[in-house]
UniProtKB/TrEMBL annotation:
Pfam hit, one: TauE
Protein name: Probable membrane transporter protein
Chain ranges passing through the membrane: 42-60, 72-91, 97-116, 136-158, 204-225, 232-251, 263-281
Annotated membrane topology: Multi-pass membrane protein
GO CC annotation: plasma membrane
Family, similarity comment: Belongs to the 4-toluene sulfonate uptake permease (TSUP) (TC 2.A.102) family.
Record-linked InterPro entries: TM_pro_TauE-like (IPR002781), TSUP/Inactive_protease-like (IPR051598)
Keyword DNA-binding recorded: no
Keyword terms: Cell membrane, Membrane, Transmembrane, Transmembrane helix
Predominant cellular place of this UniProt entry's protein: membrane
C-alpha cells in the first residue's frame, strides 16, 4: 500500500515540478523508480508511458492559460520524437548491469546542471521576439529526445534551458511549449520501448497511479508557472536528483565505494544543496524588496 501511495505522490510531485519549470518529470520520477530497484529500461518505459497522459493534460492546461508557441511545439516535437524512438530502442538493447550506471551518470549530470542553472543564472530576455530558426530547433529536439529516452529524463533540462538561454521566447511560453511537445517524445519513446521490451515487466498499475497523480497536478502547475519562483524550485529539484543518483553511482552497481566515502559524498552534496537553496531564497527576497521599493517610489 505504501508503494502505491508513493507512486501517486511521485507522479503528482514530478508533474508539479515539470509543469512549473518545463523540466524535471523524467529525471525526478526515473531517479525515484531506480531507487526502488526498477531496471533502467523498465523505469524509463514506465515514465514515458505515464508521460503520454501527463503531457497531454499539461499541454491542454498550458493551451488554456495561453502558455504556448505552436511553431516551437511543432518544430521541436517532431525531431524530438525521432530521437526518443532511437534512444528507447538503444537502451532496450543494453543489459541492466551496463545501463544502470550509464543512466545514473546522465541523471547526475542533468541534476547538477539544473542545480547550477537555477542557482547561478537568471532568465535572459535581451532577444525576446526574435524568431528561432528550424536549423536550431530540429537538432535541439533530436538530441534532447535521444537523451530523454536513454536517461529517463533530459527533454526539459536540455530543451527548456537552451530556449530560455536564447532569450527569444517568454519564459512561460518556453515552459508550455516544451511540455506540450513532450507528448510526441513520450509517445515515440514508449513505442520504442514496447518494440524492444514488449509488455513483459511493465507494471501498468504503476503507470496508472503515476498518471493519476500527474494529471491531477497538471492544471495546478500550469497556473503556478505564472506565480512560483522557478529558481527556488529548480535549485531544490536539482539537488534532490544529484543526491539520489550519487547513491546509485557509489553503490555496487557502479563504483562500489566504501561506506566512509559514501557518507562523505552525501554530506558534501547535502551541504552544497542546502547552501544553493538558501542563496536562491535570499536572492528572491532581495529582488522582491527592490520591486516593492521601486513601486513605492512611483
Amino acid at each position: 500500500m505504501q508503494i502505491l501511495v508513493m507512486l501517486g505522490l511521485v507522479g503528482f510531485g514530478a508533474q508539479m515540478v515539470d509543469g512549473s519549470l518545463g523540466m524535471g518529470f523524467g529525471a525526478t520520477s526515473t531517479t525515484l523508480l531506480l531507487a526502488m530497484g526498477t531496471s533502467p529500461a523498465l523505469a524509463s518505459a514506465t515514465v514515458h508511458l505515464t508521460q503520454i497522459g501527463t503531457t497531454l493534460a499539461s499541454g491542454l492546461s498550458h493551451w488554456r492559460f495561453g502558455n504556448l508557441d505552436w511553431r516551437v511545439v511543432r518544430r521541436i516535437g517532431i525531431p524530438g520524437g525521432i530521437g526518443a524512438f532511437v534512444g528507447a530502442t538503444f537502451l532496450s538493447s543494453l543489459s541492466t548491469a551496463a545501463a544502470t550506471p550509464l543512466m545514473a551518470g546522465v541523471l547526475f549530470v542533468l541534476g547538477l546542471y539544473i542545480l547550477i542553472r537555477f542557482t547561478a543564472a537568471g532568465v535572459p530576455v535581451a532577444n525576446l521576439g526574435k524568431p528561432l530558426r528550424n536549423r536550431f530547433l530540429a537538432p535541439l529536439g533530436l538530441v534532447a529526445g535521444f537523451v530523454n529516452a536513454t536517461a529517463g529524463g533530459g527533454w526539459g533540462p536540455i530543451s527548456t534551458s537552451t530556449l530560455l538561454a536564447s532569450g527569444r521566447i517568454e519564459p512561460r511560453k518556453v515552459v508550455g511549449s516544451v511540455g506540450t511537445s513532450e507528448f510526441m517524445v513520450a509517445t515515440s519513446a514508449s513505442a520504442g520501448f514496447l518494440l524492444g521490451l514488449g509488455f513483459s515487466g511493465v507494471e501498468f498499475s504503476w503507470v496508472a497511479l503515476m498518471l493519476v497523480g500527474g494529471v491531477t497536478a497538471a492544471p495546478i502547475a500550469a497556473w503556478l508557472v505564472r506565480h512560483i519562483p522557478p529558481r527556488i524550485l529548480g535549485s531544490a529539484v536539482g539537488g534532490l536528483i544529484v543526491l539520489l543518483n550519487s547513491r546509485t553511482l557509489l553503490s555496487e552497481h557502479a563504483f562500489d565505494a566504501s561506506s566512509d566515502v559514501r557518507s562523505s559524498v552525501y554530506v558534501v552534496v547535502m551541504v552544497v544543496w542546502a547552501a544553493a537553496v538558501v542563496h536562491v531564497v535570499r536572492v528572491h527576497r532581495r529582488q522582491l524588496g527592490q520591486e516593492l521599493v521601486g513601486t513605492g517610489s512611483r
